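FW: tagging you since you asked about this chain on Friday. Here's the raw sequence from the shared folder, copied in full. Didn't touch anything.
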Amino acid sequence: MKYLFTFFLLLTVLKISSQEENGFYYKISLASTLTINEDFTLGNDEGKTLINPSALFVNNTLGFKLDEKSNVGLNIEYDWYSKQGLHFLPIYFSFRYNFFEYEDNVFIRSGYGRLLSINKYFENGTMYKAGIGFEIFDDDYENSTLIGLDFTRKRFGYRRLEKISSVSIFLEYIF
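HL: got it, structure written out here
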């Protein structure tokens, strides 16, 4: 019960501070890497598609808007690579910079952090991320939707010799 109360209190504080020019915000994100299905043929009746998702990323961010052009955030994410059977739990800091502003924003962003090993199924290591995207505001400029591409590199395993790189398409919503 106290966790539920704390969650609602945090959301209330975020909503009040988000009405100011600068302040805290909460963002939820869904992203996926896409691969070409090599078994796909035109006119197939087997239900196979040309493009298949190969990884799924779910991200939660608590961020702070520094000024009109820049934001920082603390992220916790769950990454699942279905083809390789890998699970990651990255916690990382991110920075976003709007380099073109008009009614909507075009931005670049980056992030760096750790991969947590909470049990034997999650890999331990480091990760970094770089991306570009487009921010679309709602009618009263309080909430926004972000869409774009991210490049992610994870190093994990014994002495962090194993690596996995991916390009993903993301869809995010800022409260």
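FW: Strands lie at 23-36, 51-65, 70-81, 86-88, 90-101, 105-115, 125-137, 144-156, 162-174.
HL: agreed, and Residues 2-174 form a domain with the Porin fold (CATH 2.40.160.20).
FW: great, closing this out.
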